[in-house]
Amino acid sequence: MTELIIDWNHMTQKEWDRHLSQAEHCSFQQAWAYGTIFNRNKVNVNRFVVYDGLDPIGMGQVVTRRFFGFLKVALLLRAPLWLRPVSADIKKEVLEKIRLHFPLKSFNLFAFSPDETESHQSYKDMGFRRVITGYSTVLLDINRTEEDLWQKLYGKTRTSIRKAEKSHMDIQYGDHHHYHIDWLLKHEKKQQKDKKYQGLPTKLVKSYGRNSAAGAGVFTAFALDEGMREPLAGALFLRHGRCATYHIGWNGPEGRNRNALHFLLWKTILKLKSEGVVMIDLGGINTEDGADIARFKLGFGGTPISLIGTYM
Q: Does the keyword DNA repair belong to this entry (predicted)?
């Protein structure tokens, strides 16, 4: 191994996206557009690429928020992203170098949350302390045949999709410019208020799309019936690298009666697969407060995971 070099803030969006597409899995928090949203809201964002000689082996973007006017919290979410398998020694060296970029003497607190599920003890052995427990989600590997994906659906999910197919709903795909996106964002804003959860603020969703490269960014899908002014159901995904995150889903009463959201998600999974997406993050699950949502997401055959947490 040659000396590890961390290059800060010298890459273009095109270079960033190229590196991101090399990662086996990545989260939308490491998409260029996500960092740009914060930058344009006067929040400091620092992007880095780790090189072993000339070979890029890792990357990430650190969002720094200021509190009380002087305290700065630098947060590296679901990263560093590793572009190849690396040892614990390399991870430790990289994280220590990143921490030096945000020195405590300048009132910086650096924290990171690895996109990993099984190495809590490893980071503890490196000298890092876990301060927040991990986030749980469902990952769906779609780098397989359509038949295999169908067979991995739960039986009730397959039944719901078959019933919905008999309704002959029309599916429309689009991006952040789609005619019905404001309708979907309005319902999402109400959902967040009624169900007391918080995702990426709805006002920033279009900004994510505007700041993404062509063919990436926001992916929308709507189930419609002939003669209806509004969709039966809608879904919105955020794309990043070769991955996508299920960000918003809404199903009206008639849509629920006709299993519209099950059908819509199944068709969208296949559409994303045809466009080169290999992994879908179906979003956070909480089996206590959100058991119905968790069952819905698990019904698509994904793997539930719990990340190891946030460290300082």
A: no
Token pair 């900004």 is at which residue?
207
And the tokens for 280? 């879908």
Query: Using CA atoms, how far apart are residues 114 and 98, in angstroms rounded to an integer?
Result: 14
Question: Rounded to 5 degrees, what are φ and ψ at 100?
Answer: -65, -25
Q: Which helix (H) or strand (E) holds 273?
A: helix 260-274
Instruction: Identify the DSSP state of 186.
Output: H
Nearest alpha carbon to residue 250 among 262, 233, 263, 266: 233
All structural domains of the chain with their residue ranges: 4-128, 137-306
What are the beta bridge partners of residue 112?
A: 76, 311
pLDDT at 195 over 90: no
Instruction: Classify domain 4-128 at the CATH superfamily level.
Output: Gcn5-related N-acetyltransferase (GNAT) (3.40.630.30)
pTM of the full structure: 0.94
Distance between CA atoms of residues 32 and 217, nearest Å: 10
Q: What is the pLDDT of residue 1?
A: 59
The average pLDDT across 82-88 equals 95
What is the C-alpha to C-alpha distance for residues 112 and 134, in angstroms, rounded to an integer? 11
Considering the domain delimited by 137-306, tell me its CATH architecture: 3-Layer(aba) Sandwich (3.40)
